[in-house]
């Protein structure tokens, strides 16, 4: 794992499967985790299903920099993944994205 600094970027992505596509979306997300973890600049990439809400998922990602995140989003495999994902989720991908930037008090 890469050491984190105040420059890293955290992504929280929340999404919900279309009715009847819950298992399909879970399998899709499961298959996407390992390749994303191997992208340059990835610190952490974890997929979660919301407890008590089957079909509701949260992905937590940390990247060394915004440039690394952008490279991940622009990876050639995304050209195939994004349209397939849109068939499985309610709403858009962008609707569920929250970008976080850390800050720490001065020492």
TrEMBL record:
ABM domain ranges (all copies): 9-97
Pfam families: ABM
Protein name, entry field: ABM domain-containing protein
Organism: Cryptosporangium japonicum
Lineage: Bacteria, Bacillati, Actinomycetota, Actinomycetes, Cryptosporangiales
